[in-house]
Fold these 2 entries.
Entry 1:
Amino acid sequence: MHNDVKNPTRRQLFKAIGAATAAGATAGLLPGCGKSARHTRENLSFSEIPHTLDARHHLPKEYSANVLLRWGDPLVASAGSFNPATLTASEQEKRFGYNNDFIGYMPLDDKAGPGEGEHHCRSRNSARGLLCVNHEYTQPHLMFSGYNDKYSATRGVSAEHVAVEQAACGHTVVEIEQTADGWQPVLSSPYNRRISLNTPMHIVGPAAGDRRLQTAADSSGTRVFGTVGNCAGGKTPWGTVLIAEEGFGGAFQGDPDNIADPVESLNHHAFGIAPDNRNWGDHDRRFDIGVEPHEPNRFGWMVEYDPYDPDSTPRKLTSLGRFEHEGFTLVSKPGQPIVAYGGDDDEHQFVYRYVSSDIYKPDDFSHNRDLLIDGTLYAARFDEGGSGRWLPLLFGQGPLTRENGFRNQADVLIDARRAAALLGATPMDRPEDVETNSVNDCTYVMLTKNKKRDSDEIDAANPRARNATGHVLEIVPPGQYGRRDHTSDTFKWNTFLLGGNPNAENPNERGAYGQQLPGAISANGWFANPDNVAFDPRGNMWIATDGCEGFGFHDGLWAMATDGELRAAPKHFFGCPQGAEACGPEFTPDGKTLFVAVQHPADGGGSTFDRPLHRWPDNDPALPPRPAVLAIRRRNGNEIGS
Ligand code: FEO
Ligand code: CA
Ligand code: CA
């Protein structure tokens, strides 16, 4: 999501706790996690594309992409062709949603059916699977005719359009298969499903049922309709998908200062709920905090669901805390607890880790299904000198007591931000994806930017004031290459790269990549604002960006080795059409297909449905620009980037 989509006013409320000393922003980057020279960038053999900015998407010449799914594409054969002028909410519930973000590819075993996720997710089938896609947020000025600008659309949406928007948020499950014409959706599939703001869900874990989760419509505090702000996510080895609730505050309107309970007033301010947010609450009263002050507490969680069982009820996992979740990704080792890493995508917010109470048993699917319900959440403290510590968010420990306003563990999880700050976790430059490279077993933190960091607030892990270009940290748990202990409460860390132009005059925007060998990156190799990340089967890192247009070129994908001489030396692979950010890169298990979500094409610059900047991907005068998922293949069919 673009930074300006969220409400900016609440950001002032988070004054950093301010660590003092600063490392030089462009100091030489340490070799870090790598021990082997195997994974050099020589095997990233594609023809690099240039930094450009136009109405098309761009790929190396030896690659091609087909448009797999666009906003409004039917998920059932009976839905027919798409006409945005006549779109109703019930019709939208049968169609691909808006602003695609996270993508999870879940393989389908040809010999198994619905409800048999155990068989499917082991099959590693790379030619047929379920594509599980988040729809982060809606933009009525680009979805519907008649709105003159973004603000009038946001504040003046009709009841009918609010209903369509709420049906266009959430998530899609759709079966896809590889055909002679490229990847295609299977419209007859029993798995195809939309999850929207209307989908019934359970609330589970330590905060479920707490009085702060109870509303007039749900006195149990355990049942809620829908999910929103679905940014990135994760996958589990037991065949479920995790979807994050990130910018949910923007869905609620009302003035937190008018809420009598000071705890909730502070809480609602912290997530940007304000009188001039979008006007959904006019038409759907639960989104007005003056009517239902607890409804926002039922959002801001990670949601887990089973894509292999189309009748399953998604559940919100309170064990993973409540904040603006970018996503949570897992480290699953047989006989050990599950470890999951996630970020809170806001200025001066924290990096989190979860460790399950019980161990992961690869052959016991029913046992594994509860591993994300019972465990401990931690926040990261990055110390000077490259060491760090995970700080547990446990009621009664340290400052997490009644004296500081916490009644119980539910309060600690509902107000996880406040708990982590009291524990002394390090406020970061907007943590986006946090994901582990299974080849070297190190964990990488995408920090997209933080223009609100003052010069007296810089620290070793966030070394730039007014960080406009973002950076990437590498967490190195104790242990050997490829066999590290992610359950340890201590870790080492180092700066993997600093985003930005390596030749920028402003030292706060000057990029630093790898070992800075002469010629290691080209003039097109640098980028800004890392957001999502994926690793190919060989352990190369693929970073998706959100913000490069501020530096004069498209957002897209950059690929790089994580080890060896060309570690952290990026090469430019994919470029978005103007206005879009790149999201959700996801490889098939064989590494031969790369799915990319192009989010909010033609956004910005006064672009509207009636006067769009361009009409990617259809370029049809009858259709608006449409967020879409591309399936990228190498023309010779070989592994991507090999
Ligand atoms: Fe939705 Fe954190 O980007
Ligand atoms: Ca983003
Ligand atoms: Ca993101």
Entry 2:
Amino acid sequence: MNDLNNTYADLFIAQKANRFAIGNTTYKERIAKLIALKKAVEFTYKDKIRQALFDDFKKPFTETDLTEIYPVIGEIKFAIRHLKSWMKRQKVDTPLALTGSSSWYVYEPKGVCLLISPWNFPVNLTFGPLVSAIAAGNTVIIKPSEMTPNTSKVMAEMVANLFNENEIALVEGEVEVSQELLKLPFNHIFFTGSPQVGKIVMQAAAKHLTSVTLELGGKSPTIIDETANLKAAARKIAWGKFLNSGQTCIAPDYILIQEEVKEEFVAVLRAQLKAFFTTDASASHSLSRVVNTKHFKRLVAHLEDAISKNATVEIGGKTASEDNFIEPTVISNVAENASLLQDEIFGPILPIKTYKTIVEAIGYINSKEKPLALYVYSKSKKNTNTIIKNTRAGSTAINNNVLQYTNHNLPFGGTNNSGIGKAHGVFGFQEFSNMRSVLKQHTKGSIEFLFPPYTHLKQKFVDATIKWF
Ligand code: NAD
């Protein structure tokens, strides 16, 4: 490990030496880099990316285009369109007491950044934040997940072909690689992954007072009230939950449904899942697999635990270990102490829990950690507003799910246990920047009159300044 440590330290030192050259690039130079990345993702490497994700967990090509290629291209296009204005000096007003000066702030690059990404949307969640880091003028060391090795290999090839390693480098490897990298005094760490590992990252960052963006996970609730259009809700939830085989940080983790409409909702969801994946989902070309045996076993254990505590499997339930296949599964009457209701599920299993009143549903959500996303299906403005005002979450979609992620004008991120900091668009650019404030004195400032020695007259001016300016 010492050798590894030295390799990463060398890389870090090389990037540190290069940080002003990269940081002082113009918007045009940064845009040229983004265009090169766009070309690579959209054209040169598109087929390799699709194949790698299929080899890693049978991700359908169309889903790769929609959830890996499209979001990265969208992020790049958005940054290209706005970068000039983001990089402009931002003038601010000057109070009367500071007459004779002017003030502004600039977004300066943080410097040498570490980007640790997860396996579930490996291209999107590696290159998406990388776009923001490049736009903000940083150097970056990337450590992708070891769980999707085919995709990591393609991304490594892309990064090596597009960038010098003293600007952007990608290092592959197991968890130990992240652990070694985390010892280095980065200027910023952008981490996407679980809350558990997020805490490890934050502890390591604290040693150097490195700033962090933590894009984490957790249990995202979906409320369906008695006024909701159940058919529309079922269609959207069937997509949002079982996309990527449920391995999506903002997928509905569980449903809270008003008890009187539960049976009808289950019936329409059953019909919808059949329409999406036929009666034999294992033969469907529209469904990815669980990423590996470890996660397959984890999910099967969740299912068995719930069933042993008298849960009812409403839809699905079939599994096949040779293929890490889990049928889209909907389960109700789940005991509160079942692991399905305690841990983030991150797989194609959807528990449905009933409630009698909105107050009860809100109370349940607030008894848990603040979620990354909270969804509401309702035609009632009153119910929707009550839910939003009385809960806390990283983001919300009303009468939809997941799509809030795709609007680059919206900040994306969690709150407390589901994350710290925001990604996407200008928010991602700001995350990788330091807002440096500047005050420039043009003429002698009036405040200088108040410098020592302090006299009775000066005291009167100080009193007046406090009162009037
Ligand atoms: P993870 O936390 O296990 O791993 C994420 C990354 O951290 C990987 O690159 C891994 O190599 C590294 N890592 C793992 N253990 C480590 C350790 N002890 N020390 C240092 N580095 C370590 O997460 P995952 O399984 O890859 O992804 C699933 C989790 O990520 C879920 O909780 C999900 O909700 C969350 N997630 C969040 C977002 C978001 O944008 N908020 C997006 C995708 C996934």
